[in-house]
Write a structure and sequence with these properties.
about 220 residues; alpha+beta; three-stranded antiparallel beta sheet; 3 helices
Length: about 220
């Protein structure tokens, strides 16, 4: 670093060598010469002191400049450290937020999967229950004693179905002989020794045993 001083300041510390040289050169008598030499010694001492003061002043300026430079560097380092810490804290916060969101998404996905699996299990249980019920009804119908078939078409009741009700394994058929109406399930019996073997929804129909046919005819509008 170069320290610049005003010319007036430099002149204060400047030694008057030219003035001393002129005094010595103009001295004629021995006394004047001695006085000039004595004055030169005093001036030289004064110049030495001035140079020491100037040196101290320059050193003080250098020390001050170095201190200021160190202070600026320290402040820059502190600012950099603070900015680095801020960025690291922001990164940690963002990482924590992302982890929380990811955990929430995984938990929601697991809950949704659990609900789907529970619904599938419930549907499977219901289907198994319906199948078991249909099989039980069929088994009861098979185990029912066979009724003697009617000997002629005139003796057999003129059965016919006109509606199928219910759903799944709980189906009932509305059966009529033209006068009476019965609502029967698989395994139940009709007058005349006729047993309902099955009530079907698709296609709708009623299968029987012990009648002139193994299926009852459809009679729309009858018995309503």
């Amino acid at each position: 670093m170069v320290i610049a001083y005003e010319p007036a300041v430099l002149r204060v510390f400047e030694c008057p060598r030219e003035a001393i040289a002129r005094m010595i050169a103009s001295a004629v008598a021995e006394g004047q010469f001695s006085e000039a030499l004595e004055l030169e010694r005093e001036v030289l001492v004064l110049c030495r002191d001035r140079q020491a003061i100037l040196k101290e002043l320059v050193q003080s300026e250098l020390d001050l400049a170095e201190a200021l430079q160190k202070s600026a560097t320290a402040r820059a380092r502190e600012a950099l450290a603070l900015e680095t810490a801020r960025r690291e804290a922001a990164a940690r916060i963002e990482a924590a937020r992302s982890a929380i969101l990811e955990s929430a998404r995984e938990e929601m996905s697991r809950a949704a999967d659990a609900r789907v699996e529970a619904a599938k299990a419930e549907a499977a249980r219901e289907a198994e229950a319906r199948i078991a019920e249909v099989r039980a009804e069929a088994a009861r119908a098979e185990a029912a004693p066979a009724a003697a078939p009617a000997q002629s078409g005139d003796e057999a009741p003129e059965y016919g179905w006109f509606a199928v009700m219910g759903s799944g394994g709980d189906l009932r058929a509305a059966v009529t002989d033209g006068d009476m109406v019965w609502r029967v399930r698989a395994g139940e019996s009709l007058p005349g020794g006729v047993t309902v073997v099955a009530v079907e929804a698709r296609p709708p129909g009623v299968r029987v045993r012990g009648w002139t046919s193994d299926r009852l005819p459809y009679r729309p509008g009858v018995g309503r």
